Amino acid sequence: MEVIMNIFKKTILTVFTSLLLIGNANADKIKIGTEGAYPPWNSKDASGNLIGFEVELAKELCTIMKHECTIVEQDWDGMIPALLMRKFDAIMAGMSITDERLKTINFSQGYADEVASLAVMKGSGLESLDTPEGINLSIGGGDVKKALKTLTGALAGKTVCVQTATIHQNFLESGDVGKIDVRTYKTQDEVNLDLAAGRCDAALAAAVAFTDYAEKSGKPVVLVGPTFSGGAFGNGVGVGIRKGGTDTIGKRDAKLLKDFNRAINTARKKGIISKLAIKHFGFDASM
Hints:
Largest sheet: 6 strands, mixed
Number of strands: 13
Strand content: 15-25%
């Protein structure tokens, strides 16, 4: 009887150890959602492989965290719902940290700045738009008020194209630059194509989204007006993660947030983020 009990105990111990190892292995495996249609932040190559600044940065962060990561594609307008439905564990998709989004999900510290800009085609009447070089809506002041007043007059009656469910759409519809005919699109690629085709008087997006398109397409896209930051444009781009809870998954999400923050700190100190930003943007956009 004692021999049988010893065998039983060893079997239970073996099963328990195996389950523990499986649990630890799964804990080290995470999925990261990205759009794959917002170059140079994230896009796809001719073979359909995900590429771009955030794809490379995600791999670097996962190496630092010692997590086994899979990067998956997700349409932009379904990005946060898919995260909440646990289709993946984190978002790295050029997503700016805003107060509105923080009501629904958590963010890591910012890993890159994303200034926004209006763009027009060369020869447009808006090309000579005279405003301060950059405005931070969080700071306010005379320059901001003057720039917004100038933009209100210049954009009156104009059609401005923008990707849907973005900080850029929110700004255009906020009333800060008056009443505009805002035309929304599912992807930034569609915005770029309609701007080049003359179906938009102007478009609003991350400045690098336009400069990247101009460089790769050869189209005479010109940035006009000020660059925008702060306020409706958020506080940099970070990793989106579900809010932690008391259950097992909630605790894992809370730990993942800490892991990403530590990894971003390490990547910043080692110059990894700066190097990747210069490679993809042409300048150091690290925070």
